[in-house]
């Protein structure tokens, strides 16, 4: 399928789905359709709310709230219907029906919008939802808030407030007929804005009907939508029904005034001074200015410009006159110019200039204008005072144009203190005043309309040099279609960006792009963005993208530094944006929280603090980071020295895998659960949520920031910091910011500033005491410290604000102030940087702009093994370095310059940081260190960056990836590559090279019928079959062949059904031993199974070859405890024990399954184990008497009670031999110690050598894990692959001391060689050699496994020759005639079949060694069940020639 067709298919699929929902709404039957639809919804009687065009009240209803006569002409497009809902359910039904009928819905709450877009449309068919019935106002003066419905007017709101209180008001507009919904949603400014900010800065809650007809309040809609409808306009997001408004205090008396002047007098001086004073005066004073061309009152017949300064002061006139007498003498304000009145009376004055004795406040309840004039409005923002020359040129232009006036509205005060990102309205600090362009006229003719529209446009163009730039800002409530419109075609975003940046500046792109480098016109864009709201949506998205072969990018927060969650190098891709997945469920009592992937860290911290003041979570300090990406990449923060990383505190997870399945920890298995805790989630599936372990925090924590410069003692501080920060108490975390800055003492020169920022889990006195002793160079004083709660410290780390400045609710804001251009890199330091190194670093840094952040490790981080999670950077690392540079200029030259700066500094740091590999932190994604094109060299490409991010954990991640996503559906430029399917289970790297024969195909059956089909088809096409269940076979015979072949890989057939009541379990062949043991332990603590100690071995191959383990002296082999089986035979039939017959059932228990068919499952007999077992380990070197001890061991190991397994592991190293005696005893330690004292006192076994534990813990111990490890680690299917060669022997007589001494000499030739001596006896001596195909029973003292490993394929022949020499040396000391061998330790040196049908005599060479006298019977069974010898390999059983049996 081509890329173009992929894209077309995907888009077509979506469009088809939409078309199926579409009902034609352009016919005359729309009214009937709408009525029918409304009547299907409860409480939505259409007759009450639908007004069609032929209804007599249609025109009057439409005109009632048209405030601009330009949009009340015969040519103005009219709605097909007007809906006038009276209840919330009416609105919900209206939305759903308009959506169903595919009719545009316009929402009108007051009709003041200057371009009429709430009741006019360019689309041919539209409906107006008129909210004039939604006008209730509920004022709670005692609690200080009011609920106001969207259709209420500001006049009604002010009046109802004043009814309840004379000292409360609300900061909104001065026009009383404007309605709450449109005014507040667009920002809402008025004469209290310098004291209290905008209307939107005082909104506490809201009610909105969304696109799905749901009624949402703040909690239900989430903080993003709540943010958006406070300044972003409500009409883009839903139907706003009501706002909960925070009322503000006003004095009993306020003062207003109006002072006029003309340009022929001192008006220019007044305006010049006003620009300085109005934005900077006391917050209680707001002064606006009307600038109007008028007839001169002094020079008859000429025009001039009149300046009217109108002001309101929250106080009396004496105070006001005093303030302006000092600050603004040019105004000449006198007390007689002032009027004192109540705040509600001032509202009336601002409306029409009338005094309290003329007009009463009841006029505010009048919702109607005297008339709707023709008009046009525009807006601008001024950030630099306009000069005298500029003003004088403006006066001339105003007079020339004739009628258009200006209104200057002062900012500053509270407006300068509210962040530009607090609400979509961005015009805050830096703006002196807003300009409104205003012209009204009464002649509706086309010529007059064009003339006045042109006047405003000419004047707007003239003002360009004086107003804001890049962008030229505008006020949304002064809607202006001249600055851009949208037809919502293919260029919808680009069209929207034209006006969006003007209205909203950086808030326009609030969606989750955090690096402006990836938000340019040249940045590749997704074909679609999917915004799921349910788990099933995610599952469907994965399945559809996979089916259509479209790359899926997953975004939870968008902070990834290289934009990999929303940018791709592939031509067609889709973004799955999880911002709707943001629920957080905190269970403080149980100490955990479920957090969805799209939630931010700030939201998580806030929700934890809502439930508990003494619980926290150890994650990052940036509150807008999304949980999913942060945690899956590791997640470090200021609690890491106390509690480790975020991933170290994950208890469970939910993920959608490549097959669309929803998996939790239990169903995904421990390998995948391990991988998504530090390996990045995007390589493995779509992480939906994490279950997080909360950690205790004290009621009081202490933070501080101390700065120094390199010209003072900064170098001494950093030198000492490198020693103290990683080694101090775990409760203290100190980071350092290293920044090139302008010197505060040497003007015009650059220096480096060192800022030490810290958090201590305790009080300031304790902290000062600690650092006074450990870090005197810092000179920390108590006054440098701030004590606060943990949640307040989260806010402090974000922006440095104190608890009395910023409240924790700021953590619910999901947005950055802006997305700047940036680059990050990372390093790890393992040895302190010297003074000379630091001084050279300072010199390098002042050449550019790139800063560094040093984050200390140690503490808990040094206590966690590097393999506990994919994140490997633990003990040995002193601190992590983050390289950080940001810039604002998006030009190519600037980008190249700053990227180069970071790369030069990174190169400079090479001598000071980790090596082999040079490590990096995944969450600081850096494409400079390597990318992957997923071609034939995918693994090698991935290894370049993979080793840097994950060190030795990379290969395990690759194996997990291969197991869960072998086709690499989930991929990005730095994702984990899968191995080719062939390599996924290869444990012996001798058989993973270019010269190894490869299969024609790999079959991965999910069902038994798939295996049947594979056998039949392979037989029909002359292909051999290799069956692989675990890949541990030592000679690779389950995946290598010299003839054309396929592999049937059974890893998907791994179900386990444990039946404790009947003491049995059905286990499919692809399951691992670890999975079997885990599943048994989940059902019972007193049952086990006698199989091997390596948990990653596959069941099918292990048990069919015999299968021994630590309790085989008590219960025999695994194959001795098989009571049924299922196998696919050469004819594709599925046979159980009954249908296969006892001959075949005997053969597959110890004779290996691959000669007879494909074993699907085995029914196992479970065996009892005591609640307590004892494990002991004691090692002795040759010098400590290991030889004598081993001599004794040979004489007693097979004679000990069957409850005791005591094996010996012999290794070499350090020019000596070490013998480790390891044991498992099915009983308590005291019994074992007495038993050993009686039988093997020379060993001197003591209580300290032993540990009592459960049997399942002993499984962990013998597998090399801590017994305190979670049992889920047994579900891990991957282990480290090595080059190795193994052999086996059986010993029937003790080896002499001379023989052992000769063995020691040979072992010292290769330090990577070892022998495992496994004692027999016990149950093994009681079972007949012919009971099963496995013959090595009575008469054997112990079995030897010889093993040698190496790391480089070039050394293969060297170590293979070593093994063969060692094996030859042992010949005199082991069994003879035949020299026996163990099938599961497959060894092709013993002999191999010819390519065709091998003779019985030839096969007997190796067959008699594995099977002794059972070999002939096995050949007989083979001849009966597979006479054509279809199932064959280099050591499979031959068939007898015709007539011979």
Defining key terms:
alpha+beta, disordered N terminus, single chain, 1445 residues
Structural notes for this entry:
It is a single chain. The protein is α+β, with helices and mostly antiparallel strands and 1445 residues long. The protein is built from 42 helices and 52 strands. Strands 15-12-14-13-17-18-16 form a seven-stranded antiparallel sheet. α14 (388-401) runs antiparallel to α15. The protein is elongated and about 135 Å long. The two termini are 56 Å apart. Residues 1-28 have low confidence and may be disordered.
Determine the structural class based on helices, strands and strand pairing: alpha+beta
**Separation, N- and C-terminal Cα atoms:** 56 Å
Could you list the spans in which at least 5 consecutive residues all have pLDDT below 50?
1-28
- Report helical residue fraction: 25-40%
Order of strands in the sheet with the most strands? 15-12-14-13-17-18-16
How large a portion of the residues is in β-strands, by DSSP E? 15-25%
How many beta-strand elements? 52
Note the overall shape.
elongated
Averaged pLDDT:
90
Largest sheet descriptor: 7 strands, antiparallel
* Estimated radius of gyration: 40 Å
Spell out the blueprint of helices and strands.
Blueprint: H1 3-21, H2 30-39, H3 46-49, E1 50-52, H4 58-64, E2 81-83, H5 88-100, E3 104-108, E4 126-130, E5 137-140, E6 145-149, H6 154-164, E7 168-169, H7 180-185, H8 193-196, E8 203-209, E9 215-216, H9 218-221, H10 223-228, E10 239-246, E11 248-249, E12 254-262, H11 267-277, E13 285-295, E14 303-313, H12 317-327, E15 338-341, H13 343-352, E16 374-382, H14 388-401, E17 405-410, E18 433-441, H15 446-462, H16 492-504, E19 528-530, H17 535-547, E20 551-555, E21 573-577, E22 584-587, E23 592-596, H18 601-611, E24 615-616, H19 627-632, H20 640-643, E25 650-656, E26 662-663, H21 665-668, H22 670-675, E27 686-693, E28 695-696, E29 701-709, H23 714-724, E30 732-742, E31 750-760, H24 764-774, E32 785-788, H25 790-799, E33 821-829, H26 835-845, E34 851-856, E35 879-887, H27 892-908, H28 938-950, H29 954-964, E36 1001-1003, H30 1008-1020, E37 1024-1028, E38 1045-1049, E39 1056-1059, E40 1064-1068, H31 1073-1083, E41 1087-1088, H32 1099-1104, H33 1112-1115, E42 1122-1128, E43 1134-1135, H34 1137-1147, E44 1158-1165, E45 1167-1168, E46 1173-1181, ...
Parallel strand pairs: 2-4, 3-4, 19-21, 20-21, 36-38, 37-38
Antiparallel strand pairs: 1-2, 5-6, 6-10, 7-11, 8-9, 8-10, 12-14, 12-15, 13-14, 13-17, 16-18, 17-18, 22-23, 23-27, 24-28, 25-26, 25-27, 29-31, 29-32, 30-31, 30-34, 33-35, 34-35, 39-40, 40-44, 41-45, 42-43, 42-44, 46-48, 46-49, 47-48, 47-51, 50-52, 51-52
